[in-house]
Amino acid sequence: MPDIYIHPSAEVSPKAEIGAGTKIWNQVQVREGARIGKNCIISKDVYIDQGVVIGDGVKIQNGVSIYKGVTLEDDVFVGPHSTFTNDFRPRAFTKEWTVIPTLLRHGCSVGANATVMCGITLGEYCMISAGAVITVDTLPYGLYIGNPARLKGFVSTSGFEMESVETEADYLIFKCSKTRERLRIKFEALD
Fold first, then answer.
1. d(CA 63, CA 53)
2. So what CATH class is 5-158?
3. CB atoms closer than 10 angstroms to residue 73
4. Helix or strand or coil: residue 41?
5. Any idea where the domains of the chain sit in the sequence?
6. How many CB atoms lie within 10 A of CB 162?
7. 38 to each of 6, 59, 171, how far by Cα in Å?
8. Measured distance CA(160)–CA(150) in Å, rounded
9. Percent helix, strand and coil across the chain, each to the nearest 5
């Protein structure tokens, strides 16, 4: 595996796919069938289950378990000790159960010790605060805090909080004073 660093204490299945430039650190376990993209950082004590798909440029911090059914798109950040689930009704004695998929969209960030329930999609570039518990899909660029997490506002691609600056027909226009990035969000009436 050229241009890949795997720490001697890591356990990486020969049946896993690891992209060029990826670094896998101490005590990491990567199961068979897992696919990890290019230029990722998989930090200490991370567990990546069989069949997990991780995009390019992903950073997973210490002590995170990514279970079967979880997919991370490119440039996702997962903070230390975050938790992902893949079963709504876990029981030690259940013989038959179905993996419930979870999707983390491009560029989203999950803060330290956050919990993401299964069946959830985290929107592009959304920001999940430390300790938040995500029980519903999140909006792209949304900032979510609390337990259960609630939408607090919106963030720029760089992660800075946006400010509402104007309205335009069915849109709210947000602007980041730090990066000058603008975000236009459309509102539609539900039936």
1. 18
2. mainly beta
3. 20
4. strand
5. 5-158, 159-191
6. 23
7. 13, 11, 37
8. 18
9. 0, 35, 65
Closest CA to 125 of 92, 101, 161, 150: 161
| C-alpha distance across the termini of the chain, in Å | 53
CB atoms within 10 A of CB 57: 20
What is residue 124's DSSP assignment? Answer: T
For residue 1, the tally of other CB atoms under 10 A from its CB is 13
CA angle 38, 41, 42 (to 5 degrees): 115
Residue showing tokens 């985290």 = 122
What are 65-122's pLDDT values in tens digits? 999 999 999 999 999 999 999 998 888 898 888 899 999 999 999 999 999 999 999 9
Radius of gyration of the chain (CA): 18
Q: What is the pLDDT of the chain when averaged over all its residues?
A: 93
Torsion, Cα 39 137 46 14, to 10 degrees, reads -60
Buried b (16+ CB within 10 A) or exposed e, 39-56: bbbbbbbbbbbebbbbbb
Q: In degrees, to the nearest 5, what angle opens at C-alpha 161 toward C-alphas 157 and 162? A: 85
Report the distance separating Cα 134 and Cα 126, nearest Å: 12
Query: For the chain, where are the alpha helices, taking DSSP H only?
Result: none
Q: Is the dihedral of CA 23, 106, 123, 52 positive or negative?
A: negative
The string of pLDDT tens digits covering residues 130-183 is: 999 999 999 999 999 999 999 999 999 999 999 877 888 888 888 988 888 888
